[in-house]
Backbone:
């Protein structure tokens, strides 16, 4: 074998060895995903078809029951809990997206020349760093029957007596929505700002030269070009809304009071997990999975169609 053949053989071997190292580097992701995501997902689907719960000290099952768990779930108040979840999510998301859009446009507008932007950005993002449980405990203390909120309202004359905030349907839902708004509007603002900053400044300059006013610039240029980020924010917020748990769980002591009007879908799932009814918990989890998938796909399809119409079919 001559030197040329030897060098070609070495290059092939080196190339082959190099390619094999790629599998080594991506292997940790697939291992972690399989152990902590794929296997639990499969086991959840499997549990939904089995009767498997504990009654006192006696373990019942696992015994295959087919779709019986799903029938029991839909015979319960799950539709009411789904409605609660979406009402609370919408009450927090609508002001969240509106305020985030306004702030993102303000902070990225070079004509306004807002001072201390870094300070304001830090302030609006800080609530996102606070644990939801700590936030819920803070609101629980502030708006309790004898809390500071009642003391202030009575002292300034806006209330004649203490208001039972957590015994009112509208107040309880409003407090949960307000906490979700405060925790996430900063993160939404940062994402939308990143999207606006990615738009070429020459487009805005051309619009100003043509005489477009700020509202026309926003609706005709900013929003169409911001749609990919906007769709991402909308879908991730929807997924987070369906998975809403910690704030209403702590604020209502896990009962969804008053009269289960703030009981969310995941709180209902947690009830079955706490009672070790894994069959029913699996069924609720599967329903949540499909509900999230259907709504996410529907919103994605509708908004992407709108986006393509706004951009003339260009991707």
Residues:
């Amino acid at each position: 074998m001559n030197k040329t053949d030897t060098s070609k053989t070495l290059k092939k071997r080196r190339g082959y060895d190099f390619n094999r190292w790629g599998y080594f580097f991506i292997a940790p992701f697939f291992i972690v995903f399989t152990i902590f995501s794929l296997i639990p997902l499969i086991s959840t689907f499997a549990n939904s078809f089995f009767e498997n719960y504990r009654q006192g000290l006696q373990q019942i099952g696992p015994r295959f029951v087919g779709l019986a768990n799903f029938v029991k779930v839909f015979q319960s108040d799950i539709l009411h809990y789904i409605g609660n979840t979406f009402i609370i999510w919408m009450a927090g998301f609508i002001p969240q997206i509106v305020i985030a859009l306004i702030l993102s446009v303000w902070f990225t507008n070079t004509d306004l020349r807002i001072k201390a932007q870094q300070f304001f950005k830090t302030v609006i993002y800080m609530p996102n760093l606070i644990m939801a449980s700590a936030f819920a405990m803070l609101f629980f203390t502030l708006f309790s029957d004898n809390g500071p909120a009642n003391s202030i309202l009575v002292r300034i004359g806006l209330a004649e007596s203490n208001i039972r905030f957590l015994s009112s349907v509208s107040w309880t839902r409003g407090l949960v929505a307000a906490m979700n708004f405060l925790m996430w509007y900063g993160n939404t603002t940062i994402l939308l700002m990143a999207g606006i900053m990615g738009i070429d400044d020459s487009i805005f300059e051309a619009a100003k030269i043509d005489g477009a006013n700020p509202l026309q610039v926003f609706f005709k240029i900013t929003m169409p070009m911001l749609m990919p980020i906007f769709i991402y924010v909308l879908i991730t917020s929807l997924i987070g809304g369906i998975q809403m748990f910690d704030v209403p769980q702590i604020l209502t002591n896990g009962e969804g009071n008053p009269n289960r009007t703030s009981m969310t879908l995941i709180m209902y799932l947690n009830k079955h997990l706490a009672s070790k009814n894994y069959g029913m918990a699996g069924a609720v989890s599967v329903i949540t999975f499909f509900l999230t998938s259907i709504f996410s796909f529907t919103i994605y399809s509708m908004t992407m169609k709108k986006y393509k119409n706004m951009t003339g079919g260009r991707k």
